[in-house]
Amino acid sequence: MGMRYLVSGSQMKEVDSYTIQSIGIPSLVLMEQAAAAVVREVQKKAEKKDRIWAVCGTGNNGADGIAAARLLHLKGYTVTVILAGTKENGTDEYRKQLAIAERLGVNLIEYSDFIPGRCELVIDAVFGVGLSREVSGVYRDLLATLSGCGASWVVAVDIPSGIHADTGEIMGTALKADVTVTFGYEKLGTLLYPGRAYSGIVVVADIGFPPVSLERLSPELFTFEPADIRMIPARPAYSNKGTFGRVLIAAGSKNMSGAAWLSAMAAYRMGAGLVKIFTVEENRAVLQTSLPEAIITTYDPEEAQASTVRFQTLLEAQCEWASVIVLGPGIGQEPYTRNLVETVLANAYVPIILDADGLNTIAAFPELTNYFTENIIVTPHLGEMARLTGSPVEDIRRRLIPAAREYADRYGITCVLKDAVTVAALKDQRTYINTSGNSSMAKAGAGDVLTGIIAGLLALGMEESDAAAMGVYLHGRAGDLVRLQSGEHGLLARELTEALADILKETE
Length: 508
Prior knowledge:
By secondary structure, the chain is α/β, with parallel strands linked by helices. The protein has 19 helices and 19 strands. The strands form two sheets. It has a twelve-stranded mixed sheet, sandwiched between helices. Strands 4-3-2-5-6-7-9 form a seven-stranded parallel sheet, covered by helices on one side.
């Protein structure tokens, strides 16, 4: 798989120390590469006459900053190093970099002696990925001064100062960057909010960590990039519609046919062979008109409520027909939904994507989780997740990755937790963090499209974990494409299904 690995702060520390201690690459060699990567970005933004401040703490992040300032100084840039913190507490590398800079006549000044003026570019090397407590005292004052210095560009070294490398949280205060030059692997803190909003454009610089330094930790966090859509299985030329999966969409209470339509359309667009909508009789006419491709099978809500033999037999037959089931979009909160959900969970031996009111039914009748097997994919948004777990929305938002992971692991299922950054805790222990998509997608119906995309990928034969992660990525890519075409506010969920065709052309 082409995927890109992501690391936590503690994993990055291990990568670093293994490379230095066990492989034997000297830390100053890595540092020189890191400094050069920062300089490359600064040179894109600054001219030689521009005032550049390199603001450096006393850790190795600060040492990277001093090294970058030295390289810029030697290239003829106007650079001042502002030293924050007590020099005596500096790391070994910090003291070495400081001594080199002094000998070469780099302009160095203690923050306590510094009289703030204006500058054009700030190199932020105050705190790196090791920050674990609230920023306070003189450092808090320093970050506030830098926020107000009128610089056109802030280039962060490894991670914006004040952002927690694992969670993206602001540790009391943080400095917003326009560009973050991160070393070796992307940090979670620059992908999760609010850290993502503070990181600007993230440049991942290869500074010489050998791949084994991460592989030995068996990394579990990853994301996709455009080339990875080649993983989607191709449809062979000599095939008929029966070759491809049969998607059953159990959806749509009375007058709620839109959700079913969106899921069905997305599954067709992804390449499912046959899509059947199992819904109440009242929805038949509208669905047959709006989506003539789909097969419609209907039931009587009263029979569903009474759980008649006829209803049970009908639903069991649908479950047998299907190779993938989408359960929940628009089924409402009618009393009979419990029978519907329970019958499907009890009788299906194929992947099931549980969404929306399907999840609300599980939350109302927690004993239904007894039917959960590894072929279940749940796709809750924060509100649904709060109902499923009993945790407040705010706690879940703050702990997106652990919240998704804990729920998935508790039942051995795949949990796609939807937020501004969607996290998919996969049943194979990997966790996917989404990097595509945008805020214009927070519209009714977008979730129904996602379930249809995942169903379509399963119908093409992708394994559950891969289909869940790729579905989230494609859904976001579709949202990005629609925003390019119609701007921030005009997105309709229907347009997401139309954009899929354009994205899938890239796999051909």
